[in-house]
Specification:
Layout lengths: L1 H25 L3 H7 L1 E5 L9 E5 L7 E8 L1 E2 L2 E2 L3 E5 L13 E2 L14 E9 L2
Antiparallel strand pairs: 1-2, 2-7, 3-6, 3-8, 4-5
Length: 126
């Protein structure tokens, strides 16, 4: 009988830890996610000379939307940034299904591979 109650206690503890780790994903502050997401600009096969944003995101289950800025380094600092939003950012760092075209990238005076791209906001999808 003692062994059975210990098993239930152990299962209850394990269940509690699984629940708390799932809740920690849901409660991860967007500011923390901003620092963990890595973005870059590139050209994609079949995309012409257009610039696309790709990147990695932390290992979380939730759907997230991100806002980003992209600019080019210049001799005097950097160019004025262009902003965009990626809905349901998967973070596969791939041109196939997980890239986002930088609108008006032609206003930036550098190749996509030289652009700087950073996250300005993160939201959980609605």
């Amino acid at each position: 009988m003692k062994r059975k109650s210990l098993s239930f206690a152990l299962l209850a503890l394990l269940g509690a830890s699984v629940t708390s780790s799932a809740q920690s994903w849901m409660n991860k502050p967007p500011a923390t996610l901003m620092t963990e997401i890595r973005l870059s600009a590139t050209t994609c096969p079949g995309g012409g000379n257009k610039a696309f944003v790709i990147g990695h995101r932390p290992d979380i289950k939730e759907c997230i939307d991100i806002d980003y800025d992209a600019n080019c380094p210049t001799r005097y600092g950097s160019s004025y940034p262009i902003s965009g939003t990626i809905k349901n950012f998967v973070g596969g760092a791939s041109c196939y299904g997980d890239s986002h075209e930088i609108k008006n990238a032609s206003k930036l005076d550098c190749e996509p591979e030289k652009m700087r791209v950073w996250v300005t906001a993160v939201r959980y999808c609605e």
